[in-house]
Amino acid sequence: MRDGSMHYGVDIANSSSNVPVNASAAGVINKAVGGCSNNGSLGNTCNSGYGNYVIVRHNINGKTYDTLYAHLQSISVSVGQTVSQGAKIGVMGNSGSSTGQHVHFELYEKARVSQSEAVDPMPYLNGDKPTGSYHTYDGTWATITITQKANVFEYVGYGIIGQLEAGGRYKVYGQREYAADGTLFYNVGSGYIHNAYGTIANHHATVTSTINTYSSPNGAFNRQLAPGTYKVHAAKDGWYNLGAEWVKADQVLVTKN
Fold first, then answer.
1. Residue 33: per-residue pLDDT
2. How far is CA 23 from CA 60, 76, 254, in A?
3. Do the Cβ atoms of 110 and 68 come closer than 8 Å?
């Protein structure tokens, strides 16, 4: 609360000239809204009081976050542009409903719809907010949510051994194609589920420092992988597949969706 009403973010001020405003995390520019003069005043309604502002959409450990940066003097990015953490997105200013040079910073733990959904960003800025619940390697690489009653097959495509009800959520240990027509089935531990009867949510692996990747588990060295978050496509013998390469499970932090 501030002066009897909710303030949906934090204000960070700096009176120096041409102060850069940088992306708090890697993401894609979702909005870049300008057109406001840099001589704001309390109650100024330009762009709903935000003045010139940018919204960056982030995918962190498989979860969507939006961050908003308002009252900018100028904008340095465009919608759809990919930015890295620390990339300049604009210059601190005094546009919109503002009484001095600062950046108004908001954070959303989802895709932003309305300002009332903003959360306190300070736990994130202080490093107190956990960025995910990391799971212990168990041979899984995704989860599947059953969308309609589904048969469970002992083998890929034949040998019905049971059924799963709609709404259930299960671990995915692997996937195989039915040789006759190429239909994809998911291994849920107890058997195989036809891909049409569920929705897959891949795990995500966070790399915190540069690591080596390999052509296969215990295979040939492939390349070095930079820090970032990557979709997991398979798991085998203590390794994760990140698409075209494999990494050791103990070198990444993996979260389930």
1. 98
2. 14, 11, 24
3. no
Task: Read off the DSSP letter of residue 47.
Answer: G
CB 121 within 8 A of CB 112: no
CB 185, CB 224: distance < 8 Å:
no
Q: What is the pTM of this model?
A: 0.55
- Encoded amino acid at 59, one letter: N
Q: Judge contact between 83 and 29, C-beta under 8 A.
A: yes
pLDDT of residue 129: 63
How many Cα atoms sit within 13 Å of 192 on the Cβ side?
19
Splitting the chain (257 residues) into consecutive groups of 10 residues, what average pLDDT does each group show? 89 97 95 98 97 94 90 97 94 97 96 92 75 82 96 96 95 94 95 96 88 96 89 96 95 84
Burial of 64 (0-12, 13-18, 19+ CB in 10 A): middle
CA distance 148 to 153: 15
pLDDT at 61: 73
Q: What is the pLDDT of residue 128?
A: 63
For residues 235 and 140, give the distance between their C-alpha atoms in angstroms, rounded to a whole number: 6
CB atoms within 10 A of CB 202: 17
For residue 122, the SS3 value is helix
Q: Are 150 and 197 in contact (CB under 8 A)?
A: yes
CA-based torsion, 155, 156, 158, 160: positive or negative: positive
